[in-house]
From TrEMBL:
Protein name, as recorded: Aspartate aminotransferase
Keyword entries, A-Z: Aminotransferase, Pyridoxal phosphate, Transferase
CDD domains: AAT_like
Additional record remark: In eukaryotes there are cytoplasmic, mitochondrial and chloroplastic isozymes.
Pfam families attached to this UniProt entry: Aminotran_1_2
Subunit structure, interactors included: Homodimer.
Amino acid sequence: WFNKSEFIPPDAIFALTAKFQADSSPQKVNLGQGTYRDADAKPWVLPSVNLAREALLTRGLQHEYLPILGLQSFREGTAKIVLGSELFDKRATQIATCQSLSGTGALHLAGLLLRATQNKQPTVYIPEPTWSNHHQVFKSLGFPCESFKYYDYETKSLDIDSYYNMLKQAEPNSVVILHACAHNPTGCDPTKEQWREIAQVMKARELFPLFDAAYLGFNSGDYDEDAFPIRLFMGEMDMEAGVCISFAKNMGLYGERVGCFLLGTKDEQGAVNLQSMLEMLQRSEVSNPPGFGAKIASEVLGNDSLKEQWFQDMETMSSRIRAMRAALYDNLIASGAPGSWDHLIQQSGMFGFLGLSLDVVLRLRDEYHIYMADNSRISIAGLNTGNVEYVARSITECLRD
Ligand code: LMR
């Protein structure tokens, strides 16, 4: 049965983490996978998450099944925070939600739902570059996928004209993947004005917005600011939209797989029907979602003092990342790194998109034990005051040779 099976190379980002872990050099620096690290390069359990965990344990934790759609208080808390209370109150009866296996699971549920509801599988437009899993998720479900130029490698900035052109030419009823904020890997987001233009063109051309929202609150430290495009499309523009929400980064719940798919529709019966369909799709796929992480997130979202602590935690993470971005920039300039590095401080979010050649990336990995993705994306959280000068100096040395 299986004699035609081919070997699939390991996922590049996970393989990079494994390589880093196997490196015995005391100098090694992990700038690969997007996971937050504290100033000592250690994983960080958010204080708000610790408090929520303690409260759950004190009350007594059981391990029964969750409902198929997931924990109701988590789904509602998620919809409220993503939409903001005003929009939530306005559209509460027009949304369908389903707890998911983090952001990837939400994208997958979105794909299953689109496949089940559309006459013909729509084309999915995906920015280039993008998060490495986007193509895989939609291709594996049989969607035709088209890349569009999002980033100009010459100017090292968002290519907004190419973006608008794609939207104007895309076949109506296509899907467009939108990074809600902190575009992965480039760190370049549209401005608010550009988002308005994107929304207007998409509405006029009947394109379906599917947001990948993995960094809300983690990008700027201000949740409302980061959720701006979602609220613009579903509020001011009154559009149907899908939102794939992850709590991996902004609550540090990576391995617990806490996420939610939210669909904003136009009518109440539509929302009921679509939610029933999500329930059926979820049942056939994972039966019911995992409980522990969702209970933690629900506790944080539903308790004012824990929520306040969480906002502070997101500010702690995003401000440390901002400080390290600036420190890398300063050290690159101080060590005389050739070229301009302004792009680095114009970007935002977890990643820096350095613009180094593959040769330099591999040399940094092999000779200097500095690990970054092949496209020279760095997870800035891997930098700290103990290694940033070394990283900058090493980049400078490689570029000079
Ligand atoms: C990343 O982009 O490094 C993270 O989102 C981790 C992943 O799953 O790829």
